Amino acid sequence: xxxxxxxxxxxxxxxxxxxxxxxxxxxxxANVYASGFTGAAQLVSSVFKDFLGVGISTGxxxxxxxxxxxxxxxxxxxxxxxxYSVVSxxxxxxxxxxxxxxxxxxxxxxxxxxxxxxxxxxxxxxxxLGASTGGMDIVAMVLSRMKDRPIGIxxxxxxxxxxxxxxxxxxxxxxxxxxxxxxxxxxVIDAIHTRHEKVTAMIITRKAEELQLAIHKxxxxxxxxxxxxxxxxNENKNMLYLVITRYELYDLEKIIKEIDPNAFTxxxxxxxxxxxxxxxx
Length: 281
Prior knowledge:
Elements: H1 2-27, H2 36-51, H3 58-76, H4 79-98, H5 108-128, H6 136-146, H7 152-169, H8 172-192, E1 198-205, H9 208-218, E2 224-229, E3 236-245, H10 249-259, E4 264-270
Antiparallel strand pairs: 1-3, 1-4, 2-3
């Protein structure tokens, strides 16, 4: 257990390092902005420096922006998820302060693409281990546990504001290159983790009751249990069918490995659902 959590912590810190590399080596120098709270902190830092003559680092602003959402995550989501998210934000801020801001290339497109790839890799590996980079990820997790809402609209709205301000305050080209960086980041996250906010899990197991209890202890999700029979073994089993958010995927995988390592699980991307996604007594 200790080794698993230690590995998770190392990956989260490495993801923070990659995010910092993307910002300081590619995006900041080119005035191309990242997504979410990181991009917002980056934009505010640029405005303070270029228009007010006040130097406030992106790392400090990122830390300040994440304080209220970290408190919200602690109260509404849970300690584990929030602690790893806070660790990611803190180390991102530290790395941003330590690493120099460089201009590796004068080509803005190259900066946007490579910055997007590296940032997407950092976010993707962090999400894959059930943590987050803070900011909008925590907001999305809270909303997904409160009610089935279209979380993507919040990401889209914040990123749209960043893109619009980049075009108004600086050159219109900066807005277009920011859009390129956001697209590349999203595509890399898709490849490493999953692009859909919800996924469907179909679990073939001999321990349906134990799995159902363990899943309901961790998350409030409806589960349909269907009798199943192995065509090759002719053995009677059960299939657990449930829909979860992508932020719960790590927890589900962990539960299955602990309860029934021999279970067969198929994870399918879910484009949309109808009816009750979450219901509490």
